[in-house]
Sequence to fold (271 residues):
Amino acid sequence: MLFGFGHSGGSPRMKSGPWQTGRLSIGLCQVTVPRYVGKAPHWPDELHSGEIIYPYRFGITPVASLDDVSASQDDVLGSLAENLRLAATGNRGILAVGDLELLLDKMNVPYDGDYQPDLSQTLGILPPSPAPRNRRGAGRSNDPELRSTIEKHAVQLAITHMRSQGWHNVVELGKPYDLVCTNSSGQEKHVEVKGTSGAGADVEYTPNEVRHFRNCPDGADLIVVNDIRVDRSARPYTASGGKLRHFPSYRAPAEDLQATGWLGRVPSSWK
Fold:
């Protein structure tokens, strides 16, 4: 998914000629969670109103960004430049065909034959955008109680799930991993749990978590719970719902991690 912003001519709602004479910044993201219908308020204006405003969602992981790019169709963006303008004037996304190889090379993004980017060699983080007016648009919540409620709910769902998988003794640990599970044969399994009200396309790791994923003899399991709903009408907050994804023996591959902040792409299996 390609985003364009900061056109030198101001608003993108202009004719093609003036658009192509200008320059802009671009951000490239990989879609890692396909479209789904969200049940949890996630964006700032949704959290403020307690209602779903943007039901159709998908998950993306930032790959790279580039400033001072020509909007001419004769430059690196090719036909994608005009598609960015049309997406803005129509207030919608556009399915477009362009030269992805040329774009990835220009953005210095290493990739394989299937255009799978190596996140460990990209900065990934897009430039911050101005605070949205009227509390609308994308963003992350700064409410610590909200984050804590989501995390605790995800852990409880993970405990129930692991017990259903035959791990009869599940103990909440916290650090360097969330759960230690034991079955009737005495086998031990470590589990790291991540929760979110959004798509859960990528998650944040601490260096200790990454180290544990890589060094655990049988690989620690990763559980991601997304689309968690939180009722903030009274304190303490209460959480419900959520879709659980379980990745056994997860190794946190180097190519899936951006070292800046240890942002990790969640494996792409989605059922």
